[in-house]
Input
Amino acid sequence: MSMRLYSCLITVALLFYPYVALGDAQSHRKAAETLLVVMEVDQSLPQITAQVVETQLQQNPQLASQREVLQRFLSKYLNWESVKEDTITAYAQEFTEPELKKLTEFYKTPVGKKANEKMPQLAFISGQIGLKKAQENQAELRQMLGDQPNKP
Output
């Protein structure tokens, strides 16, 4: 009798597994979305777009007359509705649901809010520092590349 009961329980569990897994995936995605909302990613995208335009114009001054075109293009494709689902997927792949919930709690604290406010600018500055260092030393890179035998 108990073997039959176990068989029934296993059958029921297997039948409902896809629904439980789907529920877990949905709650995981919801945790990622909640984190992104708390981090105000949707509100920071216009600032990121402006930074990208400025960087492009600094690197390519000849595009200065096309500033508005660049801004319109990036605003069209770098907006929350356009990137939301892919961004949620990326966060859900990189963090477990409990990690996402802990991050959400952190970003609700004063230090978390400050970190959220400062990190994009710090990341931009870090990127600029790295780019400047690479440009300052590009002669050395050319030399290193020239020293390498050509490989097929």
Observations:
- DSSP finds seven helices and no strands in the chain.
- Residues 2-38 form the longest helix (37 residues).
- Helices lie at 2-38, 41-59, 67-77, 80-94, 97-108, 110-136, 138-147.
